[in-house]
Specification:
This protein is mostly beta strands and 123 residues long. 7% of the residues lie in helices and 49% in strands. The chain is elongated and about 55 Å long.
């Protein structure tokens, strides 16, 4: 059996076998944009830190809202390192809004986390 294909994942396998887990900790889980002009772009970064003792993988993030884009780090986040979930909102309709962003990770205690944004789109 050849071990070469396993070399890239070997540290993760050893950390898991030793009981090491990633732990995601957000600085904040809600953000109020306040008033946003229709057609403008509002941006926010939800900063987080890996407080665990194994690399953290952000598997994806989803927000179902017109004009909303979400970005997440594709590379693993080392223990004690940080990253951000970036939200960009370009509203086309006026009125109040509240959106939930579901973030999926390999943190066994937070497989999915919900971040929330809100505000009001003005003409």
């Amino acid at each position: 059996m050849k071990l070469a294909p396993l070399l890239p994942v070997l540290p993760v396998l050893l950390a898991t076998a030793a009981g090491a887990d990633p732990t995601i900790r957000f600085e904040q889980e809600e953000h109020d944009f306040g008033a946003v002009a229709r057609g403008a772009t509002a941006e926010h970064a939800f900063a987080f830190r890996n407080a665990g003792d194994a690399p953290l993988h952000v598997l994806g993030a989803l927000a179902v809202a017109e004009g909303m884009e979400v970005e997440w780090p594709e590379a693993p986040i080392a223990p004690d390192a940080g990253g951000a979930i970036r939200v960009r909102f370009s509203p086309k309709r006026t009125g109040p809004f509240a959106v939930a962003i579901v973030v999926r990770t390999d943190d066994p205690l937070a497989v999915s986390r919900v971040l929330r944004i809100r505000g009001a789109v003005v003409p």
